[in-house]
Write a structure and sequence with these properties.
Distance between the termini: 29 Å
Low-confidence stretches: none
CATH superfamily of the largest domain: CoaB-like
Bound molecules: cytidine-5'-monophosphate
Number of strands: 19
Number of domains: 2
Mean pLDDT: 92
Largest sheet: 8 strands, mixed
CATH architecture of the largest domain: 3-Layer(aba) Sandwich
Helix content: 25-40%
Length: 406
């Protein structure tokens, strides 16, 4: 039961009799290894106590918008950013109406407005309330905006009536949650990624390299697995664990990385170059450690192959995605890089002392392709990777690249 390992679920609970089922839902999510942060509306606390949910989730339940203690620990914007998924179960008719109109008059509704994570609602209400044209119009509006509606189910209701409006059972909501993180949209596809830095040896103990933690590439590898793809990850030296389900191939230099890419590229449908490949390598590597006896040391460097450009220029290229880390004029330079390297997509981010990017846990990206672009706002790299994989998947399917036989 590790399906939701490291996934952060913000579970919103609104006022309705089905709120008692939220306790079981928290238990199931926790058992699947998710982190669960409960946020309750005032009305929800009439149906189930925050203490119950706090005990089950292992986290302090958030309720009040203006709680100086809460704001000090983690502000509402940070909380919105924290979540990989916002699941509201049960969702009342009132909450749907507030969300449809963009109201931000309590903590939960504000979080929904501030969130970049997907939002899923599990409606629960009397059947007449569900069938009311106002609720139906709100449901359609929310769905049109990309908010997911999980349920409601049909059947006997707490009020004694029978019809649509029952909240889905906690086990069904758990299954939907797992499905949400495992879209299978890339089932049967093969993805090759490069990640981390390369190290170009000067002598047996020294090297030239770029700053790169490999976090973004590893997070992408995990997100591709969750989308159902078979994933090969060619990684330079990094201190990261291999994500479950990923075939990892370790390399040291750019030449080694190029060789491994060449070996695997023909079976792959998507190639993502996330590695910070050293542009140059020492022309000769000293056999022994160079002694610091001289005042000046001249190194002759030679160009490394551009792995991404080579893959993009191959006879039957896969769908190619590159990264552009720029310190200024982000879009201009990234667009130039996209055209020059002839890649299908470029993910651009600002780097530098102020912007960070390299060794941080968070990042923001602007994704560019022929005739389109998308901003992926600042988020943890795991979450950003999911958004980027979703964008790549969309473009990949839109361009209908034929699947290669593996
Ligand atoms: O040219 P620049 O290094 O800025 O391009 C960045 C993109 O090209 C990244 O996707 C990087 O992984 C890829 N690249 C490569 N081989 C190189 C240099 C960069 O694949 N030698």
């Amino acid at each position: 039961m590790f399906e939701l390992k490291e996934k952060r679920i913000l579970l919103g609970i609104t006022g309705g009799i089905a709120a008692y089922k939220a306790a079981e839902l928290v238990r199931l999510l926790r058992r699947s290894n998710a982190e669960v942060q409960v946020v309750m509306t005032q009305a929800a606390t009439e149906f189930i106590t925050p203490l119950t949910l706090q005990t089950l989730s292992g986290r302090r339940v958030r309720q009040a918008f203006f709680d100086p203690n809460d704001e000090a620990s983690i502000g509402h914007i940070d909380l919105a950013r924290w979540a990989d998924l916002i699941l509201i179960a049960p969702t009342s008719a009132d909450f749907m109406a507030r969300l449809a109109h963009g109201l931000a008059n309590d903590l939960l509704s504000t979080l929904c407005l501030a969130a970049t994570a997907p939002i899923a609602l599990a409606p629960a209400m009397n059947q007449q309330m569900w069938l009311n044209p106002a609720t139906q119009a709100n449901a359609k509006l929310l769905q049109a905006r990309g908010i997911k509606l999980w349920g409601p189910g049909d059947g006997e209701q707490a009020c004694g009536e029978t019809g649509p409006g029952r909240m889905l059972e906690p086990a069904e909501l758990l299954a939907q949650t797992i499905k949400q993180f495992n879209s299978q949209l890339l089932a049967g596809q093969c993805v090759l990624l490069t990640a981390g830095p390369t190290q170009e040896p000067i002598d047996p103990v020294r090297f030239i390299g770029n700053r790169s933690s490999g976090k973004m590439g590893f997070a992408l590898a995990q997100a591709f697995v969750e989308a159902g793809a078979q994933v090969y990850l060619i990684s330079g030296p990094v201190a990261l664990a291999t994500p479950t389900g990923v075939t990892r191939i370790d390399v040291g230099t750019a030449i080694e990385m190029q060789q491994r890419v060449t070996e695997h590229i023909n079976r792959c449908d998507i190639f993502v170059a996330c590695a910070a490949v050293a542009d140059y390598r020492p022309k000769a590597t000293a056999a022994q450690k160079i002694k610091k006896s001289r005042e000046q040391l001249d190194l002759i460097l030679t160009r490394n192959p551009d792995i991404l450009a080579e893959v993009a220029a191959s006879t039957v290229p896969p769908f190619t995605v590159g990264f552009a880390a720029e310190t200024e004029q982000l879009i201009k330079h990234a667009e130039e890089k996209r055209r020059l390297k002839r890649v299908d997509m470029i993910a651009a981010n600002l780097v530098g002392a102020e912007q960070g990017g390299f060794e941080r846990d968070e990042n923001a990206l602007t994704v560019l392709w022929e005739g389109g672009s998308k901003n992926l706002p600042m988020a943890r790299k795991e979450k950003l990777a999911q958004s980027l994989v979703a964008t790549i998947t969309e473009r990949y399917h839109a361009e209908k690249h034929p699947t290669k036989d593996s």
